[in-house]
């Protein structure tokens, strides 16, 4: 097993007329939950899209599980959850997950396991249109868990979820990491930082800090990540 699921150097992305990622270097290790934190618009989704291989106008080197990002062979080794739901409104949770299992060629037995992993067992037969927002996000996540991907990439998976559910989902992410997967989770909510094994703090298309939450706080000489973020930004401006 490779230690780094993702290895990136010199990542530059241009969108419209603007360069939105300005030459990033980072890794995403296997067996850990890596958080990508930064304010709205800083480039988190763009970074994630580059890793998954769906972003246009990318330069630099982006290697995922030993292959160039976007390689065909990576398709069933990466689970990717976007902010927009991929599940169908008029199908039940089970029908949705079973549909994607067929598409991916994943064993039917996986369907129930993935639904249970996101704690949707009680709603398995409900059509997605009648689920709450949080339940719908979890149905989306269940699809991404099919086939036990080596890399799970989640773009703001906990937005709009209640604290109990967030707790459940973070538990799921850590279980997957403990089983050896690399988990990359973005969030604009700084208070999710402490739940990550490793963090990348991002601002204006640049990674301004990278390390364990403890190491980042120690280096900045403060005791919460939000303060660390501000201290680093102030330090850069000075
Ligand atoms: N098609 C586009 N043309 C030009 N600029 C774009 C385009 N799409 C996105 N951008 C810009 O790229 C930057 C990064 O966007 P991105 O969606 O990656 O940010 P984000 O950190 O994921 O934000 P959020 O947390 O709000 O989802 C933003 O400033 C955005 O305005």
Characterise the protein shown here.
With 238 residues, this protein is of the alpha/beta class. It has a single domain (4-82, 150-237), classed as P-loop containing nucleotide triphosphate hydrolases (Rossmann fold, 3-Layer(aba) Sandwich), CATH 3.40.50. Helices cover 34% and strands 27% of the residues. The chain is built from seven helices and ten strands. It has helices at 44-52, 93-104, 109-117, 133-145, 163-178, 213-220, 225-237; strands spanning 4-15, 18-29, 33-37, 58-64, 67-68, 78-81, 151-155, 182-187, 198-203, 206-211. Helix 2 (93-104) packs across helix 3 (109-117) and helix 6 (213-220) packs across helix 7. The site of adenosine-5'-triphosphate has 13 residues, from strand 2 and helix 1.
């Amino acid at each position: 097993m490779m230690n780094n699921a993702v290895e990136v150097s010199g990542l530059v992305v241009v969108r419209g007329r603007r360069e939105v990622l300005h030459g990033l270097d980072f890794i995403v290790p296997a067996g850990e939950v890596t958080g990508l934190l930064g304010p709205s618009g800083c480039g988190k989704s763009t970074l994630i899209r580059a890793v998954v291989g769906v972003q246009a106008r990318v330069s630099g080197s982006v290697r995922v599980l030993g292959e160039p990002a976007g390689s065909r062979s990576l398709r069933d080794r990466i689970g990717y959850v976007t902010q927009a739901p991929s599940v169908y409104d008029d199908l039940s949770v089970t029908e949705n997950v079973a549909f994607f299992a067929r598409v991916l060629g994943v064993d039917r037995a996986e369907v129930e396991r993935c639904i249970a992993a996101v704690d949707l067992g009680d709603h398995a037969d409900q059509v997605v249109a009648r689920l709450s927002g949080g339940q719908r996000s979890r149905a989306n996540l269940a699809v991404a868990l099919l086939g036990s991907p080596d890399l799970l990439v989640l773009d703001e998976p906990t937005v709009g979820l209640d604290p109990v559910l967030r707790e459940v989902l973070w538990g799921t992410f850590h279980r997957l990491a403990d089983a050896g997967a690399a988990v990359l989770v973005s969030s604009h909510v700084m208070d999710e930082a402490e739940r990550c094994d490793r963090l990348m703090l991002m601002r204006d298309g640049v990674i301004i800090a990278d390390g364990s939450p403890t190491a980042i706080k120690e280096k900045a000489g403060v005791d919460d990540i939000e303060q660390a973020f501000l201290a680093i930004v102030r330090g850069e401006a000075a």
